Amino acid sequence: KEQVLLILKLGIPSGLQMMVIYAGVTAIMSVVNSFGGSVVAGFGASQRIDSLITLPAMALGTAVNSMAGQNIGIGRWDRVKEIAKYGALFNLAIMLVIAVLVFLLAEPLTSLFIDEKSAVSFGTDYLKIIAFFYPFIGLNFILNGIVRSSGAMYQVLILNILSFWLLRYPLTSICSSFIGENGIALGMGISFILSSIFSFSY
Prior knowledge:
The relative contact order is 0.15. The two termini are about 30 Å apart. The radius of gyration is 18 Å and the shape is globular. The protein has helices at about 1-35, 35-55, 55-75, 75-105, 105-110, 115-130, 135-150, 155-180, 185-200. The protein has one domain. It is mostly helical and about 200 residues long.
């Protein structure tokens, strides 16, 4: 009975989190689609690069999750604070290096996945803008990893709802309506900063 309750406690919010994330991605794609085929193609190419770039941040988040969970279990909150601090510092160092490389190599990286000139142009601009926000993407993984390690699965669900539906989608839509297609990256980047603040506050 206890095992069933534990599965439900962890499984239901995890499933809902994935629903929130995929629905949020679909909503953002509706904004991207409004700018036409070239922007959609360029966005798709840049997202492939983003998925590779976030791997180190995801790995750090997983490590922090495991370490924090063990120390929360024995009541060593002083260690949890240290884990959070050093996790954030490692993330900052790694993601800043990656951000600089992506900014400098944005065009050839985009060209690996697509060769249409206008699509490459958008993908290049997107990567150069979003690169400045990579450290905050990583910080979200670190902070959410610590929240998740405490067993606060529904709180992580709420943070995801805030991130996608109150920040990322509205900001992407608003910024793109004011400054055009480059507002997609700007809106998403600003949402990463605000999401980090929400997670840190919790």
